[in-house]
Specification:
It comes from Micromonospora rhizosphaerae. InterPro entries: DUF2993. Pfam families: LmeA. Keywords: Membrane, Transmembrane, Transmembrane helix. The chain has a domain of 82 residues. The chain has 5 helices and 11 strands. It is of the alpha+beta class and 261 residues long. The protein has a 6-stranded antiparallel sheet with strand order 1-2-3-4-11-10. A hairpin with a 2-residue loop joins β6 and β7. The radius of gyration is 30 Å and the shape is elongated.
């Protein structure tokens, strides 16, 4: 009789393991379904916000590729219930913004909105305000579009050692020369100020008139370039030359990131 006890003890243990495994599998399936549902809901909200951002861009008479929106934070559904989202990232590509005298091209504008408030009805219907506590934006203006605004045939702009550099053909006292130099770049009142104070031209005649003409050319391309009106009430804080273009950093506080309201 004593040898039969292990067989009776083994069956309850095996049943217990099977029940435990079954519960774990069930929890994993339920968890996967919840995650999937959470991501589906996030996708719907991202598309709704993208549509609203598209309207906001159109209000500024600008153009861009369809906005790419990513709602950060997990789980998404708890953020929906609270009506507050940790982060919403928006990417606008191929932005074309009208300015006085032409168009400014921004290959990509990255916008990061933090602590965004939006009710469930607003997300679902697109009516109402989606308000961000803070919005930070970074974009790069191409040197080609900037050079076109200067209106000097053959003039090119670029970056060297963190400075904006210029290269342009000129005719001074009948001599065809190439002007090179750097510019100081500042920003104020929505405009980028370009000041070309250090220009040189190899072969420049050693005459006062030649130096005066070169100085006049520097003044003629030292202009205030108006920036396109940015979406989301972004205000430009800093502009710096980089290899890929003139990088603009902007921010805003307590602003709607949709076109409603």
């Amino acid at each position: 009789m004593a040898e039969a006890y292990p067989a009776y003890e083994e069956r309850p243990r095996r049943r217990g393991r099977k029940v435990l495994i079954g519960l774990v599998v069930l929890l994993l399936i339920l968890g996967g379904l919840l995650v999937a549902a959470d991501r589906v809901a996030a996708g719907v909200a991202e598309r709704a916000i993208a549509d609203q951002v598209k309207q906001e861009v159109a209000k500024k008479n600008a153009q861009s590729a369809p906005p790419q929106v990513d709602i950060g934070g997990f789980p998404f559904l708890t953020q929906v219930l609270a009506g507050k989202y940790e982060r919403i990232s928006i990417v606008l590509k191929d932005v074309q913004g009208p300015v006085q005298g032409g168009t400014v091209s921004v290959p990509q504008l990255d916008v990061d909105a933090r602590n965004v408030k939006a009710s469930l009805d607003t997300i679902r219907s697109g009516q109402g305000d989606v308000v961000a506590e803070s919005v930070d934006g970074t974009g790069t203006i191409t040197y080609d579009s900037l050079a076109k605004l200067l209106g000097r045939p053959g003039l090119t702009l670029g970056e060297r050692d963190g400075k904006l550099v210029v290269n342009a053909p000129v005719d001074i006292l009948g001599a065809k020369l190439t002007v090179t130099g750097t510019a100081d770049v500042t920003v104020a009142k929505g405009k980028v100020a370009l000041r070309f104070n250090d220009l040189n031209a190899e072969g420049l005649p050693n005459l006062p008139m030649a130096r005066t003409l070169l100085a006049n050319y520097a003044k003629s391309i030292s202009i205030d370039v108006p920036l396109p009106e940015l979406p989301f009430q972004l205000n430009v804080r800093k502009v710096e030359p980089r290899p890929e273009g003139l990088t603009v950093t902007a921010d805003a506080r307590n602003v709607p990131i949709n076109a409603a309201g």
